[in-house]
Amino acid sequence: MSVDQILVTGDPLILASQIAILLTIIGAVVGITYFKKWRYLWEEWLTTVDHKKIGIMYILAGVAMFFRGGVDGLMMKAQTSRPNMEFLDAQHYDEVFTTHGIVMILFMAMPMLIGIMNVVLPLQIGARDVAFPKLNALSFWTFFVAAMLFNISFVIGGSPDAGWTSYFPLAGKEFTPGVGNNYYAIALQIAGIGTLATGINFIVTILKMRAPGMTLMKMPMFTWTSLVTSILIVAAFPILTVALAFMTMDRLFGAHFFTVAAGGDPMLWLNLFWLWGHPEVYIVVLPAFGMFSEVIATFSRKNLYGYKTMVASIVGIAFLSMLVWVHHFYTMGNSAAVNSVFSITTMMIAIPTGVKIFNWLFTMRKGRIKFTTSMLWSLAFIPCFTIGGVTGVMLAMAAADYQYHNTMFLVAHFHYVLIPGVVFAVFAGLYYWWPKMFGFTLNEKIGKWHFWLFVIGFNLTFMPMFFVGLDGMSRRMYTYSEGLGWEGWLGFSAAGSLIMAAGFAALCYNIYWSFRFASRDVGSDPWDARTLEWATASPVQHYNFAVVPKVDSLDPFWKMKKKGTFKLKKQDIKEIHMPSNSAIPILMGIAFGIVGFFLVFEWFTLAAIWSLGIIACLVANSFDYDDGYHVSAEEVEETERKWRGDL
Amino acid sequence: MEKTNKVFPGKLVIGFLLSIVMTVLAAWIALGTDFSKSVIMWMIGALAIFQAGVQLIMFMHINEGKSGMINTINIVYSVFIAAVIVAGSIWILTTGHAAH
């Protein structure tokens, strides 16, 4: 294979990206070497097993992926802003919408949420780390390596271009012969391994490591949603694993699971993809619901209304989410019975979701609401998400869906669900928990710029899509003729996307500004919050809790503050056992990445040789007898004295 | 544990008898009746599932002890997921236009 078969050549946009990527890598290496930060990077971050640092790395990667997916979105909006635009050609447009979808769902939404879960969840339940810290690091590195592998596709070998759903027969070797779709099969497989491990890790952490006295019905709402999400991950991700394995067999080894030629069935791919894909929607949206619950309760200065119905509706949503997947392909031509059953289950999901909306509204009722940036995100979420939900019920009716199917109406619907449901939540969560990660709050004034630009831009971008969809514009159209009546709507939409991008820029500026200038004197509990994570220092001590707190009710930290029992006695401080850092997760992640790269190009001998690297890491891990280390009581005492007044 | 050793193991005996009855019944249905092949498959399949349930409860004590509740929930949930995925996929892919 010659170089120009491997590197993508001939497109000025891609050439510019290749140069930019090269310069960035050189810049990063030179910068780290110049400032002598390699040792710091390796010891403090790359080999860490600390859930807070892993969470921060997830969030950083998520923000970077948000930028990449966002640029994809802007390119699509630019291309459709005018009829007969010649900014992107059909092939390039296909690649852009494919990577936009995958990057946003799997490499932006998932790591952002898992990152915040990582930072917050052990703190909320009064634990010192997750149940399997090293596995947690491995989850991060497999995700990160998979994201990088997927992202180099557009400069090396060519992007996947069969849509984020990669439907067969289009995604098969016959119609998509390039390596692009191999990237899809392999990178998603590697990322899926990490996600599955995360799911198991969090289930065990929540079930086994809660502070004494914290029964299941005394857990904070975010912990509840994380638990249910983890259970959904464990139920749904193996289906993706199997589907991708079939796809890999078909594409790399000439099998026929999904090709009609030798008795395969392309509809089986759709079926398996959405058996995972629909629960996946709830996997990303449930933790977001949990974040809104925490933020709304804190800033309404009330406890969460209807805690038990909230728990019941989360479990109900999770249960129903496994029973609705056919609504993504009613038009495949199912029997009337199939379509009716799935119409009904789909509409039923609106019931528990509606219950949650009312619980949030009643939490705010008669509360003394503080309009902080994270509260604003939660407030904007409710009407925007409701629009997404109601149009979802419209799409749920199988007969009507034959009209809406694969139109821009659908695209508008799922952006109205996922952006308020996930992105607003992530922003609310970042503003809310930022002091726990870094010891200062993000600037509220810039935050409000971020908020208003993003929310206005979001509505301007996606609201017009409902109308062009009803006017007959199908999704994934890269160009259209004049005189269809779409120009105005799509022009608005393109302008809106620029405002949204300005909102994102405001977030980046806010992070930069706050790192440099924000006051470090915000205390450990800047929002006067309710749950245990605020009973730690800001930023959190590496061992989390000097003494594991005892819990006897909901909102334990609030109770402690009211009763004045938030005190630490010197004699209670004992030696703390913590896990040691390990290089195995990152090395194993890199081995996964190299094997994946060779598999993408179907260089099987090299892939086989490098997969020995994965096995070597497993063996090395089995002979790793490091049981962790102990933090002495004196060190704990000294650290605690720095931030608490009472010791 | 000590306590259960002293009393008559009634549960185990009932489980043992039920298992034998269901096994013999399955053999008789398969060999001694004139039902059509698909009816026979359904009946012995159902008996197999019942017997698995009997064994899990009577011999493997899944609903006893500290984690009994959790074990039961796990098994019921796994059966639910497996049924949804397998039965659901078969139903969807064999009834629509796509199958004909």
Automatic annotation (TrEMBL), chain A:
> Pathway listed for it?
Energy metabolism; oxidative phosphorylation
SUPFAM superfamilies (UniProt xref): Cytochrome c oxidase subunit I-like
Q: Does the keyword Transmembrane helix apply?
A: yes
Alphabetically list the UniProt keywords: Cell membrane, Copper, Electron transport, Heme, Hydrogen ion transport, Ion transport, Iron, Membrane, Metal-binding, Oxidoreductase, Respiratory chain, Transmembrane, Transmembrane helix, Transport
According to the record, the segments passing through the membrane are 12-35, 56-76, 96-123, 135-156, 183-207, 227-247, 281-299, 311-330, 336-355, 376-400, 412-434, 446-469, 489-512, 583-601, 607-623
Q: Indicate the enzyme's highest-level EC class.
A: oxidoreductase
Primary residence: membrane
Which Gene3D superfamilies does the entry link to? Answer: 1.10.287.70, Cytochrome c oxidase-like, subunit I domain
Xref: InterPro entries: Cyt_c_oxase-like_su1_dom (IPR023616), Cyt_c_oxase-like_su1_sf (IPR036927), Cyt_C_Oxase_1 (IPR000883), Cyt_c_Oxase_su1_BS (IPR023615), QoxB (IPR014233)
Q: Which residues form a coiled coil?
A: none
Cofactor note (record): Heme A3.
Q: Which family does it belong to?
A: Belongs to the heme-copper respiratory oxidase family.
- Name assigned to this protein: Quinol oxidase subunit 1
Q: What lineage, starting at the top, does this entry show?
A: Bacteria, Bacillati, Bacillota, Bacilli, Bacillales
UniProt lists the gene as qoxB
From TrEMBL, chain B:
Keyword annotations: Cell membrane, Membrane, Oxidoreductase, Transmembrane, Transmembrane helix
The record ties this protein, via Pfam families, to: COX4_pro
Q: Superkingdom of the source?
A: Bacteria
> Which residue ranges traverse the bilayer?
12-33, 39-62, 74-94
Enzyme Commission (EC) number: 1.10.3.-
For this UniProt entry, what is the primary localization, expressed as one broad class? membrane
Membrane topology label: Multi-pass membrane protein
The record's catalysed reaction(s) read: 2 a quinol + O2 = 2 a quinone + 2 H2O
Record localization: Cell membrane
Q: Does the keyword Transcription apply?
A: no
UniProt xrefs under InterPro entries = Cyt_c_oxidase_su4_prok, Cytochrome_c_oxidase_bac_sub4, QoxD
Region forming the signal peptide:
none
Family to which this protein belongs: Belongs to the cytochrome c oxidase bacterial subunit 4 family.
Q: What does this protein do?
A: Catalyzes quinol oxidation with the concomitant reduction of oxygen to water.
- The molecule here is called Quinol oxidase subunit 4
> What organism does this protein naturally occur in?
Aquibacillus rhizosphaerae
